[in-house]
Design a protein that fits this description.
Elements lengths: L2 H31 L8 E6 L2 H10 L7 H4 L4 E7 L2 H13 L4 E7 L12 E11 L2 E13 H16 L6 H23 L1 H30 L3 H17 L2 H18 L1
Parallel strand pairs: 2-5
Antiparallel strand pairs: 1-2, 3-4, 4-5
Helix pairs in contact: 5-6, 7-8, 7-9, 8-9
């Protein structure tokens, strides 16, 4: 297959990855707007490089004309989560979607690979609306925690360096690191409520500070520089140690000043 034909072949995969990134980032945004904990921390996606496609097809004896039917990860999505239980929330979200069909799932968190690899994989059939009609492609979701993703990225790099023949000593250290990363995930899960409360508090305070600063800039724009400077000094004192209630009072004060001069 000529390079030009390969580029044409990959177009629906490229479109699928871009669409899926938008859709799953939107899910995260929706949770945040409702002030709810999002199981999605961030989303990435990629289309497999041509050299990697051919290498994998050769490894598994997949004929070129069968690649689109048998190579499941040409379009790859990674969904990162803060906590292990969030992974299964994302899995449920995917199961409920009507814009894709799940072909099969692999739970490498419960059934850990010998290397120590942990992740949840879902293979889906996804319809892409092309100029000449609908084209169904296969795509792979890998859902994992940040710690799992760090470990998997390191293992991938070492597999590339050693051509999948990682020396035994390094392999043992990798396995030990994988277990340590999972233990970290488990410990973080035990204090999840505390972490989520702290993150929510930070978001609330950040929003209040942003609103107050917006009002201060508005006061400056209408020539109320002395009041603006006074509010800015109060805000500077509250930013590091102020409570939410104190920031709310300052926000109300700036809003009252604006109403007077409007």
């Amino acid at each position: 297959m000529a390079v030009r034909e390969w580029k044409k072949f990959l177009i629906p995969y490229e479109q699928a990855v871009e669409e899926l990134k938008v859709k799953f980032k939107s899910i995260r945004r929706e949770y945040r707007r409702k002030n709810e904990n999002s199981p999605i921390e961030f989303v990435t996606g990629r289309v497999k490089e041509l050299s990697s496609i051919l290498e994998k097809a050769n490894k598994f004896n997949i004929p070129l004309e069968r690649i689109e039917y048998e190579l499941e990860d040409i379009a790859g999505m990674r969904v990162m989560c803060q906590f292990v239980d969030d992974i299964y929330r994302v899995v449920d979200l995917i199961r409920k979607r009507k814009d894709m069909q799940i072909m099969y799932e692999k739970d490498y968190i419960t059934d850990v690979k010998a290397s120590g690899y942990r992740s949840y994989h879902i293979i889906v059939k996804y319809p892409v609306n092309m100029a000449d009609g609908v084209r169904e492609i296969l795509a792979e979701f890998q859902i994992r925690t940040l710690a799992m993703n760090f470990w998997a990225t390191v293992e991938h790099s070492l597999n590339y360096k050693y051509k999948h023949q990682i020396p035994g000593e390094i392999r043992e250290k990798l396995k030990s690191a994988a277990d340590a990363a999972f233990n970290l995930d488990q410990e973080m899960l035990e204090i999840k409520d505390e972490i989520m409360d702290a993150q929510k508090l930070f978001e609330v305070k950040s929003s209040l500070v942003s609103d107050i600063m917006g009002n201060i800039f508005t006061l400056i724009s209408i020539g109320r520089n002395i009041e603006a400077e006074n509010y800015r000094n109060q805000l500077n004192k509250l930013i590091s140690e102020g409570e939410v209630g104190e920031l709310n009072k300052l926000l109300e004060a700036t809003e009252k000043s604006l109403k007077i001069y409007k």
